[in-house]
Amino acid sequence: MLYTRTGDGGLTSQYGGNRVPKYHPRMHALGTIDELNCAVGMAASFANPAVRKILHKVQHQLFSAQAQLGKGAVAIELPAIEQRHVDALEEVIAQFERKLSAQKRFILPGGSKAASHLHFARAVCRRAERVAFQSGEKGMIIKYLNRLSSLLFVLARASNKNDVEVAYD
Fold it and tell me: What is the reported pTM?
């Protein structure tokens, strides 16, 4: 059954069964990263195939970030965001930047449908980073979200400039 009614009283479960208020800062961070994942998915639906592949990989990594944030103090093994994920984002950003002209002014969010959705996802990502930090997260998830917002920005620029393609494996 899709609903359990266990959250009707304002509490929700973390991985491992610990129950916390729905307004708990970690739950707010989880919800914002979920919203980010939706925004990334929407952007992917308008992106070219190469960018869509990058965004789908990011969506899976966002699930790992949520698992990491949602486990609470329970010592269970879950997928986690690691330095290699941050490094991979940095490499993709560098590949795109090599193919784009230098940015010399502020860029208005918008342009093509893909770019517009990527800019929106970037703004949600920035909020997710702030909310995750506010929830007490100080580690790799913060770094990942910071680099992800940069990636979403460069993807938006590329989407407005002949859909530059690079590999992301």
Answer: 0.87
* Residues constituting the chain: 169
Where helices occur in 11-167 by DSSP H, the ranges are 25-46, 49-70, 83-99, 113-134, 140-159
Which one-letter DSSP state was computed for residue 20?
Answer: E
Q: Give the count of alpha carbons within 13 A of 45, CB side only.
A: 7
Q: How far apart are CA 161 and CA 169, in angstroms?
A: 23
Q: Are 148 and 65 in contact (CB under 8 A)?
A: no
pLDDT in tens, 137-153: 888 999 999 999 999 99
Residue 151 CA to residue 159 CA, distance in Å, equals 12
The CATH-assigned architecture of domain 11-159 is Up-down Bundle (1.20)
